[in-house]
Amino acid sequence: MKPFVFPCLAFLLVHLSAAAEFPQAEISNSLLRAKLYLPDASQGYYRGTRFDWSGVVASLEWNGHNYFGKWFEHHDPKLNDAVTGPVEEFSTNNAGLGYDEAKPGESFVKIGVGALRKPDEPRYSPFNTYEIVDSGKWSVKNGSDWIEFVHELPDTSGYAYTYRKRMHLSKNKPELVLEHTLKNTGRKAIATTVYDHNFFMLDDQPTGPDFVVKFPFDLRATADLKGLAEIRGKELVYLRELQKGQTVFTNLEGHGGTSSDYDIRVENRKTGAGVRLTGDRPLLKVVFWSIRSNISPEPYIDMRVEPGKESTWRILYEFYTLPK
Length: 324
What we know:
- The strands form 4 sheets. Strands 9-10-11-12-23-20-19-14-17-16 form a 10-stranded antiparallel beta sheet, with no helix packed on it.
- The chain folds into 2 domains: 173 residues, no CATH class; 90 residues, no CATH class.
- 0% of the residues lie in helices and 44% in strands.
- By secondary structure, the chain is an all-beta fold.
């Protein structure tokens, strides 16, 4: 396993407690303040093998509102979804890159995590925690209102990459921008989907009728919403407050083939907090998952990156308040 490298550490590493010291950084502008957990193979807050380790937002505060936080009861750094904020997952054929080609004992790739060992199992599961064979090399640098993560993974069965994620807060605006570059430094083409799970927690309010999720297109749910929520045109609304153990989970269809449909709003009408996320790529699909403690619209995009080439994409979060 290669070491993690953090050059130009102008930011402060914050330790949560003596029992669990998770490296963190903070960025802010005149309006927003965000705390982020840093990737670290031995001390990191998230060391699972499902989500990209960069850009894990512990909290984001604006105008008295908070948008991200710990939505689960118990934290285990190696649990697949014990993670917070607008985290992203890369997937190829609903598995890791090269998983289908690898034999048990050989390696496959999860972008933003590293090279993982394939066990003798019938199929890949994102809920499993796989052995990390090579976590690659992480580099992190930042300024007062931005932070940049770079993950480099050497050749793993023909796959290799340099993945860059830059997160910055717009000057004098309540905005968070995620800019990504994936460069293929290997011998094989990288075909992958990527989505942002989001894990919204608007003011720590329980999910229920005070929330609405809006899209720019007429929605069709592919699953039974079990009387907990319903589709009303371009909106998903909740009919009752979700209790522990209740889940709303469905694909949402109806989008077209342009990036203009990558435009999602989540609003808390009780506290007045709202967030809009827009992307610069067409949607491949939208998965929606929510429980009592969070709301997660999951917009997917896809890409193919040939050897020596790179792909870029951008996601913008705009935070706002509802008129009283």
